[in-house]
Amino acid sequence: MSGCSRRSSRTSTPWRYWSKPGISAGNLETTLLWWQNQPAEYLRAKSKEENAAIHQEARAQASTIRALMQDRKELISKQIKDKLAEKQQKKEMKATKEVNTKIKTSREVSQYGGPWVTEAEVESFLQDMAPAVQRKALVAQLRFHRDVVQVRGSKVLFQESSQGEKFSPEQLKEHFIEVLSINVDASEDFPPQDLTYRQASDIHEATDVQKFDLTMKLQAARNSRLAKTHLPSFLQQPSSLIGKRFLHLCRNAPGERPEWFPGTVLEVAKVAMRCDLSNNMMIQIEREIPPKTAKK
After folding, report:
1. How many Å apart are CA 183 and CA 153, to the nearest integer?
2. 58, 32 in Cβ contact below 8 A?
3. Ranges under pLDDT 50 in the chain
4. Within 10 Å of residue 289's Cβ, how many Cβ atoms?
């Protein structure tokens, strides 16, 4: 008898409760919409018979659908990880390339007595070199100041040629001296500007003001959303407002900043003119509602 009663109770229970005891109506509809690749309005537009048939088919294929969903999630997760790994690899390759370039440039400069930092050193090193060697030395110095020292300047100053014509040693020398002058100008000491220090109390007070303003903005946006959400039902049944607490956005005079005022609806009265109630429930009442004593 006990076995028969258990079987009969199981038969009378809907499929989703004994086959998927953890599934809820919301989860089932989410799975169904994912399976059909449809928005939420898809089910609302169907009749009761079509809705029941779609749900029944979704229950029958719930396991398959969830397996597909899990596979899709794993695929997306793998794609994101692969993309991040590829991005990190490119970043590391770029950093390695920059280090190798700096090492190679430093070795080339060391063959010509190290970095040249003054015009006198340039003249001293070049006077004992042949024109071909002068060209190689100047190119090495320009690359060093571009890649390692990272001197700012026109791109042409660091090039070996322009428009298919190679620069002569004299031209490269002029470019290098100009680069050195730029480096000297950038490294000069400038007198510090007058600094204004703020008190810690002023910083905290300004932070508190910003937090308060942000809180008020968020609260005003939330109140506006709530008003617009509940407004249609209140328009259909105005009497449902009685006894409810609300915030009323209004201003004392034109041009003044509107403020929120709390209140409680005591009764519903006719308005003097037709109002647009879609903007934060700004209601103009024909007469003032007299206060009522609460009933015990």
Report:
1. 9
2. yes
3. 1-23, 25, 189, 192, 195, 278-296
4. 12
In SS3 terms, the chain reads as CHHHHHHHHHHHCCHHHHHCCCCCHHHHHHHHHHHHCCCCHHHHCCCHHHHHHHHHHHHHCHHHHHHHHHHHHHHHHHHHHHHHHHHHHHHHHHHHHHHHHHHHHHHHHHCCCCCCCCHHHHHHHHCCCCHHHHHHHHHHHHHHHHHCCCCCCCHHHHCCEECCEECCHHHHHHHHHHHHHHHHHHHCCCCCCCCCCCCHHHHHHHHHHHHHHHHHHHHHHHHHHHHHHHHHHHHHCHHHHCCCEEEEEECCCCCCCCEEEEEECCCCCCECCCCCCCCCCCCCECCCCCCCCCCC
Q: What is the mean pLDDT of the chain?
A: 74
Q: What is the C-alpha to C-alpha distance for residues 221 and 214, in angstroms, rounded to an integer?
A: 11
Dmax (CA) of the chain: 115
* pTM > 0.90: no
Q: In this structure, how many other beta carbons lie within 10 angstroms of the beta carbon of residue 258?
A: 13
Q: Which residues contact 117 (CB under 8 A, 6 or more apart)?
A: 180, 183
Amino acid present at 174: E
C-alpha to C-alpha distance for 205 and 2, rounded to whole angstroms: 73
Q: Give me the helix-helix angle, 119-126 and 131-147, nearest 10°.
A: 150
Which amino acid makes up residue 53? Answer: A
Give the separation between CA 122 and CA 173, rounded to whole angstroms: 8
> Roughly what angle, to the nearest 10 degrees, separates helices 62-110 and 131-147?
140
Which amino acid, residue 206? A
Q: Which residues contact 37 (CB under 8 A, 6 or more apart)?
A: none
